[in-house]
Specification:
It is built from 8 helices and 14 strands. With 334 residues, the chain is α+β, with helices and mostly antiparallel strands. Strands 1, 4, 5, 6, 7, 8, 9 and 14 form an 8-stranded mixed sheet that branches. The protein has a 4-stranded antiparallel sheet with strand order 11-12-10-13. A two-stranded antiparallel sheet has the order 2-3. Strand 11 (282-285) and strand 12 form a beta hairpin. Helix 2 (112-126) crosses helix 3 (133-143) and helix 5 (209-229) runs antiparallel to helix 6. The protein is globular and about 65 Å long. Bound molecules: (3R)-3-hydroxy-3-methyl-5-(phosphonooxy)pentanoic acid.
């Protein structure tokens, strides 16, 4: 490699309907269970990577949302660049990386899924390394498990697999199959005290973990079939149950993880009230944080959003439909 090579990619975040929680193999990031998500078209990360083999760089340089990043975030990115260079079979040159989210980092939206999907696509392309979508999914998984799903658009399943090559995502339904909306009720903008990466290693300490995992074959089938038939009541009932099961595992781990705030519970109760008393067809899920993700169809999204904004403790409401998978784009960040 004698000239500098640069590429830019964009990837949407995703919201899991059946959650990934718990690792079977921490070094390869193999999960305990399959998971299913919707790739978010309107909440995405753009990342430019430029490898610098003959240039002035002595070490990697990382900017996130315009600010220089160091510490554990930068180390995690550098470790991912190591993986890409290893796949290409080259000595690792330093790289300049800039990443920008179109949603506020402090909004509590998981940015690691979109970030590691975009980083994988851009870093491989900038090296001239041609990987198909499955190989990119396996690569992204090692940066952040949920990133394996953001390689693909629409509705996506990540197969737990049994080794590096088989633990990859694949599309279940395209984005235009069903125009669901994820309304994100932002409750806290604080960085979480326990990252999902360390939380995954605690799942097995909960006495409820085995029961949740044993229930998932059925839940996965229900979600696949609800997606295929666009059955929101079936989808919604199943995703609420799994979100609560995952949080029960978190709460009963050692040490215990309690991500909810009072406003989180207020959102869950409000969703059930709106369904029961107003017939609003809306269901919740919650990731490893206090924010509520409300899933509904476009016809009721405005009504749900305005009710959400009136709840105590809800600081903002973001909205996204399903979107495309990770892709290279022309517009570089530098
Ligand atoms: O990809 P990670 O390590 O940030 O884990 C994601 C964990 C959840 O968001 C809680 C669930 C999921 O499947 O996205």
């Amino acid at each position: 490699m004698t000239t500098t090579a640069k590429a830019t990619a964009r990837a949407g975040s995703n919201i899991a309907f059946i959650k990934y929680w718990g690792v079977a193999d921490a070094s390869l990031n193999l999960p305990l269970n399959n998971s299913i998500s919707m790739t978010l078209g309107d909440l995405y990360t753009t990342t430019t990577v430029e490898w610098d083999p003959d240039g002035p760089l002595k070490a990697d340089i990382l900017h996130i949302d315009g600010a220089a990043a160091a510490g554990s975030k930068a180390e995690r990115v550098s470790r991912h660049l190591d993986r890409v260079a290893r796949l290409a079979g080259i000595d690792r040159p330093p790289a300049r990386v800039a990443s920008r989210n179109n949603f506020p980092m402090a909004s509590g939206i998981a940015s690691s899924a979109s970030a590691f999907a975009a980083l994988s696509v851009a870093a491989a392309a900038a090296l001239g390394l041609h990987l198909d979508a499955s190989a990119l999914s396996a690569l992204a998984r090692k940066g952040s498990g949920s990133a394996s799903r953001s390689l693909f658009g629409g509705y996506v399943e990540w197969e737990r697999g049994c080794d590096d090559a088989s633990s990859i995502a694949h599309p279940l339904q395209p984005a235009d199959h069903w125009a669901l909306i994820d309304l994100v009720a932002v409750v806290s903008t604080a960085e979480k005290t326990v990252s999902s990466a360390s939380g995954h290693t605690l799942a097995h300490t909960s006495p409820l973990n085995t029961a949740r995992i044993a229930s998932l074959d059925r839940a996965l089938d229900q979600v696949r079939s609800a997606l295929a038939t666009r059955n929101l009541a079936e989808l919604g009932t199943t995703i609420e149950q799994d979100a609560l099961a995952m949080h029960a595992v978190m709460m009963t781990s050692t040490p215990s993880l309690l991500y909810w705030q009072p406003a989180t519970l207020a959102i869950l109760q409000a969703v059930r009230r709106w369904r029961a008393t107003e017939g609003l067809s809306v269901y919740f899920t919650i990731d490893a944080g206090p924010n509520g993700h409300l899933i509904c169809e476009p016809a009721v999204a405005t009504a749900v959003s305005s009710r959400l904004q009136q709840l105590d403790g809800v600081q903002a409401v973001l909205s996204s439909g399903p979107g495309a998978g990770a892709t290279l784009i022309q517009e570089a960040l530098f």
